[in-house]
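Provenance

Sequences were taken from public entries as deposited. Structures were produced by running a predictor on each sequence independently, with no templates supplied. The record for DinB-like domain-containing protein from Deinococcus gobiensis is shown for reference.
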Amino acid sequence: MRWDRGERGPFDWKGSFLPAAVSDTQWTEVQSRVRRAYEGAVALARSWETRPLDGDVTGGLAGATAHVAYHLGAIRQMVKAQG
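Predicted structure for DinB-like domain-containing protein:
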């Protein structure tokens, strides 16, 4: 997760939803990026075994979970609209 690596922006929020349409190959790549991000979040959550769970880690994970849920919901709605 970028915030755990110290990245604080600025980020291209508008660009995060571009492109609006992708090919099958690009969709597969997006799914792979989502999977890698998920695996990174799980690894961070499991890191409590090697470092203390302070407010930055727990707050970051809670915020990231809500953020990801929003984006996955948006993707689901886009896919449903294409259906």
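The radius of gyration is 15 Å.
The chain has two helices and no strands.
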